[in-house]
Design a protein that fits this description.
Helix content: 40-55%
Strand order of the largest sheet: 7-6-11-10-9-8
Strand content: 15-25%
Structural class: alpha+beta
Number of helices: 29
Shape: elongated
Length: 657
């Protein structure tokens, strides 16, 4: 069912557009566009960052069935990449992900100006108070607990989508109000005389600066100009007839500032160069100050009144003599850099924002099977489509640089000249001008094809090892059951129940796998107990029970020297320990007992009481559940007991096997 309230609110606000003069709204364009999009979007977009299907599916079903657009990311890096491609309206983020903590993902999102306003709601267990606090510290706005309750999920999602919409509208209105106030202040300021305005603006500028009106009268002469020329402002202000040229040239003549009003080729020829950038003029010249020839950089720009008419001009001058003297040092440094560039083992490059190489070293050319950098630069004129196996990855990389700055370790596939595919790791950053515009990208490439292949082989070998471990454990379990036919299947049932409890408790896949393996051989120590005691049809005496209790230590002794991916021996040693210290063989208490052992203890108790034994008939499942619930938090782990009770009473779990 579509969220009618959200749709109605968005639709009704769509028609209420605020019309303001374009000149007043320019600075708030991005905020208003975002607010307008949120008002008019029919289905809000939600990104769920979760790698477990059993959590992802019910949450997705709830949201999709109520009219939301949902997309998924299975890791922290995938989430950052997804947000870089297209920002969602809201993010549901698991606290534990395969590659990083959800809190780290949240912190990265909040540190990026593009994504910091996206509300983030964490997903986790109800009891994880410290995780909630950590999530709020990272910038999250709320927390949804598992198992999911549809009403809670929809209420929190709707609330924070509405809050974000209202916040965007408030930001846009606040910005518009601020702009109107600024315009009013500017209007009041331009009512003052142009001479006073220019003087106030430039008085404390670090560069020597002066200004003239349309008649060439000096209306500003700042302190830095006084220091450079030795001429006090009182002696220059109000003077005309090119008086401002005397300190620099010893004669009255037009200079760069006069070209603001009218172009003059003869004046331009007296400068080393003159370049126009919009309405401004940039130039270099040789002047004489205090009988010393120096090289200066000059910039002249027009001054406007409130009607947009030019009422004067302003010029700044900078002594760049020392800069000129260091040019030789810079050339030497460039030569040293060139040596490093050409002899580096990694591929080094610069490229245009459009995707064409500017420079490349020999290592990069060789990596891509080109004979020289020149051949590479001539052959590759469209980096995204000629080099990238997936061209979209090039834009994703640039977006990540825009959002997060220099990016390291971006892995993607390239085509070599011969058509073969290689894996590369890219470190890249943008080089920008003083206005923040990207001039070019520079980066380092490393061929990681061999390491990627080695990693794939490692994963394959690890999978084979796990299969071998499973087969070994299965063989061990069969040995135990062969000596104790009355409890045949007990270990399998305990293993299955313990695994299911661990899964519903939200443990990692690796820990769940370990619990399942350990549960299958938790009674391996019974191979040291005489068979006649294991199958005795009457009550055991104290000595016989003492032998039975020794099976935990015996199991530990059998397995302690075997290297498993999990603490199997320790879990087997502890699976009969009790929270109050009344268990055996070590009398451990509380958190001294491994969580895996506490889970297996609950499963072992339930299965043992609910199953037939040589010395007694089955006591029944309900009596078994009543026993663990009665001793919840005293003998048995409270969380494991709660999940076990829910499995049988709500999910109708069946012990088979």
């Amino acid at each position: 069912m579509r969220d009618k309230d959200m749709t109605k609110e968005r639709s009704s606000k769509k028609s209420k557009k605020i019309h303001k003069p374009e000149s007043k709204l320019g600075a708030g364009k991005a905020q208003r566009a975002q607010a307008e999009r949120l008002k008019t979007e029919i289905a809000p977009r939600i990104l769920i960052v979760e790698d477990r299907a059993k959590i992802l599916k019910p949450l997705t079903d709830i949201l999709v069935n109520h009219g939301y657009q949902v997309r998924h990311a299975a890791s922290g890096q995938a989430a950052l990449t997804s947000v870089a491609r297209e920002a969602p309206d809201l993010i549901l983020l698991d606290t534990q992900l395969p590659d990083m903590e959800g809190h780290e993902v949240c912190r990265r999102l909040k540190s990026n100006k593009k994504s910091r306003m996206i509300p983030v709601i964490f997903i986790g267990l109800l009891e994880e108070v410290s995780v909630k606090i950590k999530g709020f510290d990272a910038g999250a706005v709320d927390y949804i607990t598992r198992p999911f309750r549809q009403a809670e999920v929809l209420a929190k999602v709707k609330t924070h989508l509405n809050l974000r919409l209202l916040q965007d509208q408030l930001d846009a209105q606040t910005l518009e109000l601020q702009q109107e106030m600024n315009i009013r202040r500017e209007t009041e300021a331009v009512l003052r005389t142009a001479e006073r305005l220019a003087s106030d603006i430039i008085a404390f500028m670090p560069d020597p600066t002066f200004a003239i009106d349309r008649e060439g009268i000096v209306i500003a002469w700042n302190r830095s100009m006084e220091e450079m020329t030795g001429v006090r402002a009182e002696a220059m202000l109000g003077k005309g007839d090119h008086e401002y040229s005397l300190p620099f040239y010893g004669t009255r003549k037009p200079q760069l500032i006069d070209l603001v009003f009218e172009a003059d080729a003869a004046i331009e020829e007296e400068y080393l160069f003159v370049r126009r950038r919009g309405c401004a003029l940039l130039a270099e010249a040789m002047v004489t100050l205090n009988e010393e020839n120096i090289k200066v950089w000059e910039k002249a720009s027009p001054l406007y009144n409130e009607q947009g008419d030019i009422i004067g001009a302003i010029e700044s001058i900078r002594d760049i003599s020392e800069h000129t003297l260091t040019e030789e040092s810079l050339r030497q440094a460039e030569a040293e850099y060139r040596g490093i560039f050409e002899n580096a083992q990694e591929g080094i490059f610069r490229s245009t924002p459009e995707g064409r190489f500017i420079i490349a070293n020999q290592a990069l050319a060789s990596m891509l099977c080109y004979s020289s950098p020149r051949e590479l630069l001539n052959a590759i004129t469209d980096i995204p489509h000629q080099l990238y196996v997936n061209p979209d990855e090039h834009e994703v990389l640039k977006q990540m640089i825009r959002d997060y700055g220099p990016t390291k370790g971006f892995e993607t596939q390239y085509y070599r000249k011969d058509g073969a595919k290689i894996w590369v790791s890219v470190n890249m950053q943008a080089v920008r001008d003083t206005d923040g515009q990207t001039l070019y990208y520079e980066g380092i490439l490393e061929d990681i094809t061999v390491s990627r292949k080695a990693e794939e082989e490692r994963k394959w070998n690890l999978q084979r090892l796990r299969q071998t471990v499973r087969a070994t454990i299965q063989a061990m379990a069969m040995v135990v059951e062969a000596r104790d036919p009355y409890t045949a299947g007990h270990q399998r049932r305990v293993s299955n129940l313990a695994r299911t409890i661990a899964t519903d408790m939200g443990l990692s896949r690796d820990r769940i796998d370990g619990i399942r393996m350990m549960g299958a051989i938790h009674d391996i120590g019974k191979i040291s107990i005489p068979a006649e005691i294991l199958s005795k049809p009457t009550k055991l005496n104290d000595m016989e029970f003492g032998l039975i209790k020794a099976h935990a230590q015996a199991g530990y002794d059998i397995l302690k020297d075997i290297e498993f991916p999990w603490p199997v021996a320790e879990i087997i040693l502890q699976h009969h320990e009790k929270l109050n210290g009344s268990g055996y063989p070590q009398g451990l208490k509380g958190d001294e007992i491994l969580l895996e052992a506490r889970i297996v203890s609950v499963a072992d108790k339930v299965e043992a009481m609910a199953s037939h034994r040589p010395y007694r008939p089955s006591l029944g499942l309900e009596e078994a559940l009543a026993d663990i619930y009665e001793n919840r938090g005293t003998l048995y782990d409270a969380d494991a007991v709660d999940v076990c009770m829910k499995l049988f009473h709500e999910k109708h779990y069946q012990m088979n096997g």
